[in-house]
Amino acid sequence: MTYENNIPEIAAALRAEGKRVALATVVSTWGSSPRPVGSQLVVDETGAMQGSVSGGCIEGAVVHQALETMKDGEPRVLSFGVADETAWEVGLACGGKVQVYVEAVE
Q1: Using an 8 Å Cβ cutoff, are 77 and 101 in contact?
Q2: What's the confidence (pLDDT) of residue 10?
Q3: What whole-number distance in Å separates Cα of residue 93 and Cα of residue 69?
Q4: In Å, how far are 3, 24, 43, 90, 93 from 76, measured between CA atoms?
Q5: Which residues have C-beta within 8 Å of that of residue 94, sequence separation ≥ 6?
Q6: pLDDT tens digit string along 76-99?
Q7: How many CB atoms sit inside 10 A of residue 94's CB?
Q8: Comparing C-alpha atoms, which of 77, 11, 9 is closest to residue 44?
Q9: Is residue 32 within 8 Å of 94, Cβ to Cβ?
Q10: Secondary structure of the chain in HEC code, one letter for each residue
């Protein structure tokens, strides 16, 4: 079992400890995105994370949105790539695009 396959179990363990948790999942990619569809990242209420959705390129932005999702309960679809308005702020060095679905884990 790869590390990324353990993410749902890690999320469940954090929830069992009483922590609020959000799960981010890569739902689509284009070009040379560093992580495949299905890659996951779990974020707890302190901003601590485990897993990866991009190999470090966008994790900070995803953690920020995961914390917002835990606050308001609203799932989000995040899009990152060289052609969007965040390209200079948060981008994929490899030049691909990635969409990440972020949801609170109940």
Answers
A1: yes
A2: 93
A3: 26
A4: 24, 9, 14, 17, 23
A5: 31, 32, 33, 34, 57
A6: 999 987 655 555 455 555 567 889
A7: 14
A8: 11
A9: yes
A10: CCHHHHHHHHHHHHHHCCCCEEEEEEEEEECCCCCCCCCEEEEECCCCEEECCCCCCCHHHHHHHHHHHHHHCCCEEEEEECCCCCCCCCCCCCCCEEEEEEEEEC
Residue 12: both structure tokens together: 């469940």
Residue partners of 44: CB distance under 8 A and separation at least 6: 14, 19, 20, 21
**pTM, to two decimals:** 0.83
Question: What residue type is 88 in one-letter code?
Answer: W
* φ, ψ dihedrals at 64, nearest 5°: -55, -45
Contact 100, 77 (CB under 8 A): yes
> What residues contact 46, with CB distance under 8 A and at least 6 apart?
none
Length of the chain: 106
